[in-house]
Amino acid sequence: MLEPSARTDRRNPPAVASPLQSSRRRLLFRDVLVLQLKLFVSGWLHFLLGPATLAAALIDLIWKSTETETRFYRVLDWGHRAESALGLFDALEGRTVVVRPPDAAPTSG
């Protein structure tokens, strides 16, 4: 006589992932890894920008600069361009995100 778990395994064989599901999982895995790398780089960028903007502002206050040529705003512009180039949320481009309220029942499919 078979154990109960062996009987249920025969009736419900383990689901084999379809190529589409496998592709989606690989894409999700890649997007998660890329996001984590971008978050790490962004963290370092913010870590460096804090002291850099303070130093640039102090230099601007000590040595007078023209209003359009301040070191502070050049550093700020560099940080803005770096953040834009990083594209932290690029994985969302071309995707439709459906947000359900927390109390909504999950949909199948």
Brief summary:
With 109 residues, the protein is mainly alpha-helical. It has helices at residues 4-11, 19-62, 71-86. Helices cover 62% and strands 0% of the residues.
Total E-strand runs: 0
Q: Count of helical segments?
A: 3
The portion of residues forming beta strands comes to under 5%
Structure classification:
mainly alpha
Order of helices and strands: HHH
Main β-sheet description = none
Write the layout of secondary structure elements.
Elements: H1 4-11, H2 19-62, H3 71-86
Task: Describe it.
There is one protein chain. By secondary structure, this protein is mainly alpha-helical. It is about 60% helix and about 0% strand. The protein has helices at about 5-10, 20-60, 70-85. The chain is elongated. The model has no long low-confidence stretch (mean pLDDT about 80).
Give keywords.
109 residues, mainly alpha
